[in-house]
Every structure is written in structure tokens, then in C-alpha cells.
Amino acid sequence: NNDITTTQKQEITTTTQSGNKNVSTSNVVTLGGYEFTIPNDLYHEIQDEQLAVTDSNTSFAVSINVNTGSYDYFKANLSLLEDELSQTGYTVISSSEKSYSGLNYLTIQLQYSGMDAYLAIYKLSDTEVAISAVILNNSTPDNAFGRLSEILKTANKVDSSSTSEFNISEFSKEIGELGK
User: Fold this and answer.
1) With 165 labelled, which of 4, 45, 129, 130 sits at a CA distance of 20 to 30 A?
2) What's 39's DSSP letter?
3) H-run or E-run covering 3
4) Average pLDDT, integer, range 98-117
5) What is the pTM of this model?
């Protein structure tokens, strides 16, 4: 069962959960029951239920996952999430609610294997959030979050397919993959 579809103007290869590879063209990606529009100047790839996006210089990389959960719950329990991240090998630098390009995010700034990274949570609905890993290579948080915001502003619920719970170990794997 694959609830991810993609259409993009540049040719890309996607891998479904079952390992099938698909090549398609368009800038509209459906992930976790939401459609997102990817700006033409960004590159993206979908694997399983994660959307990875970067620019041509790989100055930043972001992943987007649609997860079940309440933004308010995460906000009220940010210190618990920090503790979990610390226990899995991250150095937590800071956490706060910040606004980038008009969107509010819960952010946790991290160090992981020498990389500057953020965990970012954005409210899609009362019961769903977009959880992103944001890696800075030669970029600023304002630039990386600005580009992420361009994508998240286009979120449009298109079906009620189920979303998964947030998983710290999966997040750790994403940070490692994005940092390559």
C-alpha cells in the first residue's frame, strides 16, 4: 500500500515501500494524504513516507514527514522530546517556537555527528503535523526554513489516508541520510 504519489517537471526516481522504482514528472507531491508543491529550483526525492528536498548547491537539506499528533501536545511536551533526542545521541542546543516566512514552528536545534540540524514541527491540522529534519550545510536557518515554508504553505489535504506516529529512531536515520 503506497499512499505517496509524485509528479514533477524534472525527472526523478522514487522508491515505494515495496521497493518498486517509479519515474515521474511534476512538481506536485502527495504525501500522507496532503499535496505539496515543490518549487522548480529545488530537487526532491521520495523514499517510503519521507520527502527529501535540497537546492542545487546542497546548502541545506530538509525532510518532510506527515505524522499523527497535535502541535499543542508537542509544544507542551518539548522538554520530553529534547530528553529523548539527547538519549539517542544528539546534543540539544536550544528549543523554541519560531516563525519563518509567516509559519510557526516548534524547533529544536541539534548537533549530530558534527552537523548542524533542527527538528521542526509544523501544524497541518488539529490532529496532524509535518515533522522535518533540517540540515544546514552552507545555509542559514532563515534560508532553509524559508524554503521549507514555501513547500508547507502549499499543503492541501486530499485524502484521509492514515499517518504514522513520530518515531525518534526513524528521525535519527533521516538526519544521517540527509547529511550524506
Assistant:
1) 45
2) P
3) none
4) 93
5) 0.79
